[in-house]
Each structure stands twice: as structure tokens, then as C-alpha cells.
Amino acid sequence: MSKSNSDQKLPALRLIAFSAIAVPLAAALQPLLVFIPAFYAKDLGLSLASIGLLMLLGRLWDAVNDPIIAILSDATRSRFGRRKPWIAAGILLFGLATIPLFFPPSGTSLWVLGLALFVFYLGWTMIQIPFSAWSGELSAQYHQRTRIATYQQVISVAAMLVLLVAPTWVDQIDPGNDRLKIAVMGTMVLVTLIPCSLLTLWSVKEPPLPRPSANFEAASLGGRVQGLGRELVQGMGLIFKDPLMLRVLASDFAVVLAQSIRSSLIVFFVISYMGLPQWASAIFLFQFVFGVFAGPIWLQIGYRFGKHRTAILGELVQVAINLGLLLVAPGNLALLLALTFAQGLAQGSGNLMLRAIVADVADKNRLASGVDRTALHFSVFSLSSKLAGAVAVGIALPLVGIFGFSPKGENSPEALQALHIIFALGPALAHLVSAWMLKGFNLDEEAHTTIRQKLAERDALSTAAE
């Protein structure tokens, strides 16, 4: 990696431009988790169990793609770099799949929804994995990686905030028109996709291409396919034998599980349990207003205490907030708003720190193995997040259904109470597990600085020997 990329602090405007691709990604993700399941169930008549199953299958498909795209991206050699070509191709698939997902005709079947989800997730992976690896390569410095991740998180939260203005506005002028709400959000995704993608692709240069792995030096196509297989087995074996990476993955799985349970149930909670349908979108909007400030706050805490300690603190704060939801009674908007305010300020603290830690772990493993597998590390990290999201939807929606909750018609007090408990206690327990997994984590700033020094020394010796 060149000095300009690894040792210099990138200007704020350059980081904002580089992070722009997070706008359409965030704008599509939140409706997919929060609004689309409810819309397809209520307006198109698909069952919650079927939607949950499709979401789970889509994420499993995503899980298969993640490491393959990562290895191919790490091995790509082109005049455009090794990350940009994959991002550009992913943008095309992502945009094409957004249309049927957000603008479904009446009578849309499970098959159409499933196909759209599968193409959507493939495009998402082709963007997300190379972009994440590229982000980790922008700087070799411990705290600068947290800063880069913070910019991306703030951009994502700001995008979600702007996006959520639309359904809130629709709720006020035409309550219950979920089709219009989904269409407006889909339009925002498509309108931002091309300009934001161009900003990302052209704002920052990729670092110089490293020497290809020996597994990809075979000239024939068959040799390259075999090399792909060997690299997949060797790389995944190294990652899953690393106790530090396993702890990061487990912590991330738990935090995303918590967030996804909350996201998949919040519309039902506000409408059915709270009895406040006009606030269903506004609650999310309120949270993200304050969520914009969360990234800079936790960045400063991270500078002081380090990444893993800050992640633990953020997760424990989340535990307290979600336990507080158990005290919310139907119609008690004031307490719900107070907890939502706190949720906004604590939002994403664990995600932010864990994402910044992944590149540090990749450095440690590169020092041990001699092979740069940055994208593969991020693919496994992404895999844990996506599986957690799928498990949350695949469990939370059917679980509230088992206890008698229905998104249509009247619900018994017992069914509403079950919805309340699952909505509050599920995320609280998951956040607690996330914090516990990072206890005693030993890859801190001092340890990472030593790793980077050894990598620099080895790279210098290799260059001198050529």
C-alpha cells in the first residue's frame, strides 16, 4: 500500500465522496427490513412465515456469494483496480432488482419476490464486499480506520433519515397507503444510485495492485478455478481458526440480530401494541435524527478507550435501553420517544467499532500467512451480519405468529403482550451477548502498531530483494 493511502489522513470531503455509495445501500436496506415484509403481508396477502422463509433463503444465498466475490475481488487484476469493476457490475444488478421489489404489481407471487431478492442480494454483495475491503485499505492506522468507518456510518444514517421523511409524510397525508410509501422509497433509491456510485468510484484511487497469490498464477481457466477452490479452503480455514476473528464474528452476529429483531417488529409494535399507526414511520425518523450524531460521539470515545472497549460500552447501553422498553405501556408515547432518543445516540456503536476491527485482524493474519485476504475477512464479517438479519426475520416474525399475533384485524391481549416482550427482551439479550464476546479482546492500538511495523519491514525487504 502506498504511503499516500496508508499514512496520510484523507480530507473530510474526500471521505464523504468515497462513502457516497452508502446512500442507496442504506436507503434500500431499511425498507427491506422494516417496511417491505409488512407491505407484502398486508397489501399483497403473502404470509409472514413465507416472507420470513424467503428472507432467510435470500440471506443464505448471500452467504454463499460473499466469500466467492471476496476471493475474486482480491485476485482481480485490471487497469481499473481490483475493487471498482466488481462494484460497477454490482450497481447494475442492484438497480435492476430494486424495481420489482419496490414497485410490485398486484398479485405478485412468492416466486417473483424470491427472484427479485436473489438478484438484489447478489448485486448487494458485489458492491458491499469490495467496497468494505477498499475502505480497510485506505489507511493502515488504528484510529484512522475507525474514522473512515465513522464517515460511512454517518452517511448511512443520514441517508436513512432522509429516506424516512418520505413514509412519515405519506402517513400524515394518506395513512395506510403502504404501496405509495414503498414506491416513494424505491424512487429515492433509484435516483441516488448512479450519482452516488460515481462519487465513490472516482473520488479515491485504489492502492497499487499487490502481487497475485500463487493459487491464481495458472494460465488456464481450469487452473484458475482450482486456484479459487484452494484459496477458498485455505483462506476460510485461516479465518475460522483465528480466535480473535471468531469473537468479532460472534459479537457482530449478536448485535445485528438485536437490531434486526427490533427493525422487523417495530412497525407492528407501534401500530398494534402502542395503538399509534400515525407514528409508525415517525418513530424511526425520530431515532435517526439523533443517530446522525452517534458516529462522531462514539468515534471520540473510541479514540479514548480503543475499539473493543468502546464496542462493549455501546452494547451495554443498548441492553439498558431495550430493557426500558418493557416499561412502555400502550399509548405511552413520551416514554417511547425518550427511549428512541437514547437509541439514536447509541445507534451503531457496536457495528462501527467491529467493522473497524476487521481490517486490523486481516493485518494480523496477513503477517502470519503472507497473503493479503482483506476482502475475504470482510466477506466473512458481512456473512455474519447477513445471517443474523435473516435469522432475526426468520425467527421474530414466525415467533410472534405462534403466540397469536396477526398483522391484520384484532389481536388478543396475550398476543400483544408477547409482541411487546419479544420486541424488548430479544434485542436486550442479544446486545448482552455481543458485549460479552469482546471481553478481554487483546488486539488494541499497541498490538496493531507492532503488526503494521513488522508488515512494513517485511515489505521493505521484499522490495529490496527484487
UniProtKB/TrEMBL annotation:
Coiled coil: none annotated. The chain crosses the membrane at residues 12-40, 46-64, 85-103, 109-127, 148-170, 182-204, 253-273, 279-299, 319-342, 387-406, 418-438. It holds the Pfam family MFS_2. It comes from the Bacteria. Keywords: Membrane, Transmembrane, Transmembrane helix. One of its GO terms (molecular function) is symporter activity. GO terms for biological process: carbohydrate transport. One of its GO terms (cellular component) is plasma membrane. Belongs to the sodium:galactoside symporter (TC 2.A.2) family. This is Putative symporter YjmB. The lineage of its organism: Bacteria, Pseudomonadati, Pseudomonadota, Alphaproteobacteria, Caulobacterales.
